[in-house]
Amino acid sequence: MVACVALSFGGAALADAPSAAPQRVVSINLCTDQLAMMLAGEGQLLSVSRIAFDQQVSPMAEEARAYIRNFGQAEEVYMLRPDLVLAGTFTPSHTVRMLEGLGIPVVRFDITSSLDGVRDQIAKMGEVLHRQTAAAHLIADFDARRAALEEERGERPSAMLYYANGYTSGEQSLANDILELAGFSNAAVAAGYEWGMKMPLEVLALSEPDLVITTRPYPGGSRAEDVMQHPAVMALNGNSASTTVTDHDWVCGTPFVLRAAERLAEVRREMASAAQ
Amino acid sequence: MSLLALSGFSIGLQGRSVLRDVSFSIGPGEFVGLIGPNGAGKTSLMRAALGLIPSQGTSSLLQLSEAARARAVAWMPQAREIAWPVTVEMVVMLGRMPHMAGLTPSEADHEKVGEALQRMDLDGFRHRPATQLSGGEQARALIARALAQDTPLLMADEPIAGLDPAHQISTMQAFAAQTAEGKSALVSLHDLGLAARHCTRLIMLGDGRLVADGPPTEVLTPERLAHVFGITAWFRETEDGPVYQPLEVIR
Amino acid sequence: MTRSNTMTRVMLPLIAATLVLFCASMLIGPARMSLGDSLSALFAGGESPMALVMREIRLPRALLAVMIGASLGLAGAAMQGYLRNPLAEPGLIGVSGSAALGAVLAIQTGLAASFALGLPLAALAGALISVLLVMALAGPRGTSLTLILAGIAVSALAAALTSLVLNLSPNPFAASEIVFWMMGSLADRSMTHVWLALPLMVLGWALLAGLGRGLDALTLGEDAAQAMGIRLTRLRLMLVIGTACVVGAGTAVAGAIGFVGLVVPHILRPLVGARPSSLLWASALGGAVMLLLADIAVRLILPERDLKLGVLTAIVGAPLFLHLILKLRKERI
């Protein structure tokens, strides 16, 4: 892990980075925004991305207000004079290359696709920010809450995630782990979906999950999200009392995924008691 | 009973007066030639009488509903437009439209179409796409269409322009034959010779008004030809009928 | 050619093809179900997942293909008959694009959500404005050149404004839907969409179907048609409103699908003896056949992705369009 972090540092910064804690950190990715806000020391984090301010996808929109908002463009990031930039795998590579060319070290974080990956992300952020102790506390707390959820035993109803444009989450996904932890079995796995993939509506209908979990639509409306309101989807959820939606807690590999799993476990308990 | 009566009829186009105060009426059994130099208002007069362009004064046709007018008068415009490669028979059948309730022709409709095709010498073209015919053949198909409409009055704008001599004559004869059945025709022409020979009556337009109206021999005087057309002509009543030959331009 | 002859030679095969393709459309899909299961699920109904697939997913898709295909074929034949120009087609002259703009505006402003017919009515308004605009720009007898120039201007403006509205939307998915509105798709449509489009379409069909006599007469030009008792003002009004109704309603639920109204009348015209009135109904059936075929093809070619219908119709239609332009250039452009 440490080697991996070191490799992604810019050439000049390679030797210095591990020795001194960064003092002017700028994050330009929603997920690194959250981890950095959780772990950074007083005054260490300077700026987070504009997406961190968006209630729809960011569970820390309130906290984000304490920081400068950036739009992830090389020029404005450079003007903030950072000594470390936190980015994601999908941050445009030309932005990353330009910042590195300007002598600013950039650390890129992978997409998290499992609960174990969340632990790794926290540890990595702790190392990068030189906040290992805070990271260790966060991981301990994470493990404890996770263990509590895992202890629950009982029926495992099936649930299908169904997002805009008809995408679902298969076995190799963080959302799958959240479902499992909450005591559901992922119907997409049963239908043979390994990753996040587009799933025809017909396949959803025929797999008959006990629960279809959709996302909360954005304002303005779009055809991509309309499919979540298709009569066939509504018919599947017709028996359950409430439609369940994924929210900002599901988006990133942070401890917020446990809050998502806890709420979903509550839904499962309600379903179980309603069935009796 | 008149088939067309105009009185105090005036036409202005885009603020310019085209014709003023024209009055005449056409009764049954007349073959009226409408003559006059270019721009005299022959086309405008006929279109206005049909209500296709605005006018002042009265035209008996304008008092009819669209449907009734279509059964009272057939109109063959100068522009020989056939937009689609429909058969000649279908072009002619379009003339029956005012008599048909729906889109399916009756026996009588087929009969009228057959007559019109025969009269215009188009029997061999019946199933040919009309757009593939020569200009003259298309003109004959469109005349046949107007004949098939089987109305008391037929109005045609330069129907014989572009036809070969034989078909010019046979077309004039076809119009004349109609008059024998008590029908009438109002036809604009540039060929004064054919007009004098076949028409029972001529209406001459010039200087934005009606200049003369009467039998060909009375209308085609040397003074009027000089004044209205600017030509001299040779005219004799022969044993083969009236012969009329324009000679010189005099201005 | 007599009318009954046309009926048996052209109409019956088209009706048969529509029925066969409709059934095929009902039987093709990612969910593998046997013929017997599919049929019993469709007719027996009930709460089974197969009934859900047949009735709520495949049935609306096949129905919309028929309805929208027929609408586009009919509108194309009617516009061509009126303008006496084989290039007049709702997609090419920007009517579909403007309808899409109306629909997008209705969705983004919330009009579509505020009352049931808001979406198709807004699309109708967009279509109406563009039909009037194109007809005013192209003149009573649109020559090919003026018609196409007017169409290019209207389409370009509609496409640009649609992109603008979608890019300004607060919804991050909206911007990626530009391609849907430009190319059209029937994927994941529901019976809701069928009911949304049907009332306006039926009205439009009724208006356009009544044009047969007038369009026949117009073969000989406006003067001759008027003198044969055709009321041109009324005909023009019926054409404009009818076209706006069918294109607007179709575009509102499936996006702008081009070239159907060009290809279908062009292929069928010789078969019906070029008669505009016969072409109306033949093109309606032909349009249904073409769109059913295209919608089956997109599901067979790329079953997992939402390949747009307009892609297929353009691949067939664009070369034909060029051919027509070359042909017309010799005549009267």
Q: Could you say what the CATH topology of chain B is called?
A: Rossmann fold
Number of domains of chain B: 1
Describe the global form of chain A: globular
Full CATH superfamily name of the largest domain in chain A: Nitrogenase molybdenum iron protein domain
Mean of pLDDT of chain A: 86
Side-by-side strand order of the widest sheet of chain A: 3-2-1-4-5
Poorly predicted runs of chain B: none
- Indicate the proportion of strand residues of chain B: 25-35%
Task: Note the run of SSEs of chain B as H and E.
Answer: EEEHEHEHHHEHEHEEHHEE
Q: What's the CATH class of chain B, please?
A: Alpha Beta
Q: What portion of residues of chain A is helical? A: 40-55%
* Gyration radius over CA of chain B: 18 Å
Number of helices of chain B: 9
Which class of secondary structure composition applies to the elements of chain B?
Answer: alpha/beta
Tags for this entry?
heterotrimer; A: alpha/beta; Rossmann fold; five-stranded parallel β-sheet; four-stranded parallel β-sheet; 11 strands; disordered N terminus; B: alpha/beta; six-stranded mixed β-sheet; three-stranded antiparallel β-sheet
Structure, briefly:
In chain A, 43% of the residues lie in helices and 14% in strands. By secondary structure, chain A is α/β, with parallel strands linked by helices. The termini of chain B are far apart.
Structure explained in plain terms:
- The complex is a heterotrimer of chains A (276), B (251) and C (333).
- Chain A is α/β, with parallel strands linked by helices.
- Chain A has 2 domains: 2-144, Nitrogenase molybdenum iron protein domain (Rossmann fold, 3-Layer(aba) Sandwich); 155-275, Rossmann fold, CATH 3.40.50.
- Helix content of chain A is 43%, strand content 14%.
- Chain A has 13 helices and 11 strands.
- In chain A, helix 6 (115-129) packs antiparallel against helix 7 and helix 7 runs parallel beside helix 13.
- Mean pLDDT of chain A is 86; it is low at 1-17.
- Chain B is α/β, with parallel strands linked by helices and 251 residues long.
- Chain B has helices spanning 42-49, 66-72, 88-94, 107-119, 135-148, 165-180, 192-198, 216-219, 222-229; strands spanning 4-13, 16-26, 31-35, 56-59, 73-76, 153-157, 184-188, 201-206, 209-214, 231-238, 241-249.
- Chain B has a 6-stranded mixed β-sheet with strand order 5-6-7-3-8-9, with helices on both faces. A 3-stranded antiparallel β-sheet of chain B has the order 2-1-4, with helices on one face. In chain B, strands 10-11 form a two-stranded antiparallel ribbon.
- In chain B, a hairpin with a 2-residue loop joins strand 10 and strand 11.
- In chain B, helix 3 (88-94) runs parallel beside helix 5 (135-148).
- The longest helix of chain B is centred in the C-terminal third of the chain and has 16 residues, at 165-180.
- Chain C has helices spanning 3-27, 35-44, 49-83, 95-109, 111-114, 118-138, 144-168, 178-183, 191-209, 212-218, 222-227, 232-254, 260-268, 276-301, 309-331.
- The radius of gyration of chain C is 20 Å and the shape is globular.
- The longest helix of chain C is centred in the first third of the chain and has 35 residues, at 49-83.
- Chain C is mostly helical and 333 residues long.
- Chain C has 15 helices and no strands.
- In chain C, helix 1 packs antiparallel against helix 3 (49-83), helix 6 runs antiparallel to helix 7 (144-168) and helix 9 (191-209) runs antiparallel to helix 12.
- Chains in contact: A-C, B-C.
